[in-house]
Structure prediction request, 231 residues.
Amino acid sequence: DQQVKQNSPSLSVQEGRISILNCDYTNSMFDYFLWYKKYPAEGPTFLISISSIKDKNEDGRFTVFLNKSAKHLSLHIVPSQPGDSAVYFCASLVSGGSYIPTFGRGTSLIVHP
Amino acid sequence: DTGVSQDPRHKITKRGQNVTFRCDPISEHNRLYWYRQTLGQGPEFLTYFQNEAQLEKSRLLSDRFSAERPKGSFSTLEIQRTEQGDSAMYLCASSAHTGTGVMNTEAFFGQGTRLTVV
Prediction:
């Protein structure tokens, strides 16, 4: 049973446009959410996170939005660049519990020049 | 200290052989995680250590798998009697965890060990 779901396996975007990656979760105990980026043959790299006490967190070109009532979060990348092409993983955890990140299956983003 | 280091990067082994992987976490991190990733999947949790104590193991960690972190620094993951289904990327991550939630860091991953069982 997937507690963190990334229903789009891939996304293709033109350079300069916005990329929107989506993530849904089922465990209502999750209260901290992270996005990781992964290039081939490398480990995931932390990108941005958000606590459930917020609904938005921004870091440069990257913004994460959280909709707790819908159990949905999204990562916006604007403007998208070819170097953003990678697999993006959404992860969720219970901050007051074991603090173990549970990952989605990932979305492969391709940004075309 | 430049990050989480894993060794080897690649391992090809014959079915039935034992393999051992090593992970050196970021030096000030007290938590160490092992994950497994197969094609088309996200990282799946295997086990984690808080200092030298192994606090949780997932059901994915069969009896053929054992992990240690003897001095609370580096960790090893051993797979005995490897099977073709063990072929995967094994990822190690570390974080600083105070328990309060406020000062916990995100998990930082190593580059992984790709295991191929033939």
User: Anything to note?
Assistant: The longest strand of chain A covers residues 86-93. The interface with chain B takes residues 4, 6, 9, 34, 36, 41-46, 49, 89, 91, 95-96, 98-106 of chain A (CB under 8 Å). DSSP finds no helices and eleven strands in chain A.
